[in-house]
Amino acid sequence: MKEPPERAKRGEPRAARSEHRRCVVCGDRNPWSLGLRFEPDGDAGVRARVRADAAMQGYDGVLHGGIICTLLDAAMTHCMLDRGIPAVTGELRVRFLHPVPCDALLEVKARIVRERPPIYRVSAELMAARRVAARAEATFMRRPPAGAR
Q1: Dist. CA 41–CA 59, nearest whole Å
Q2: How far is 116 from 21, CA to CA, in rounded Å?
Q3: What is the per-residue pLDDT for 15?
Q4: Average pLDDT over residues 3-23
């Protein structure tokens, strides 16, 4: 497998990192960022851990489904960025398997399933207490370079 372009400390190409600094999930310039740091996981994957808390709840004691979707989407986005491919989510399908407690230590993993540039299929899992609590599949599209719109 070909090595991606120059990587930042977090495994992302510099251009992707600079465009992501205000991200609500991983941004270092967003005061509300969850602060996730994705790391490579195998040939085409990434993973990160985060401790959920009550500020993320929907129903009492249960992590909000929108937060779960956001974590899954972010992991899949970072899969693309880790490969040096700036991309956007075109379609996202999530399957909620189990309720996630608000105080759980979560692990989110994603991997590229199929590549047909400029279209990519990516999958992700969110785990709590070593059990898969949600799964996602998405179609990503390569994003045009900045200024080429």
Answers
A1: 32
A2: 28
A3: 46
A4: 53
Whether residue 117 has a cis bond before it, omega within 30° of 0? no
DSSP letter string, 24-42: TTT-TT-TT------EE-S
Query: Does 6 reside within a domain?
Result: no
Which range marks the domain in which residue 122 is found? 39-142
Question: Is the residue at 25 inside a domain?
Answer: no
Enter the pTM of the model: 0.85
Q: Would residue 50 count as lying in a domain?
A: yes
Q: Is the pLDDT of residue 22 over 70?
A: yes
Pairing label, strands 39-40, 87-96: unpaired
Q: Which long-range contacts (CB under 8 A, 24 or more apart) does 14-23 make?
A: 15/86, 16/81, 16/84, 16/86, 17/81, 19/86, 19/146, 20/81, 23/74
- Total domains in the fold of the chain: 1
- CATH at 85: 3.10.129.10
Closest C-alpha to 44, from 87, 96, 4, 17: 4
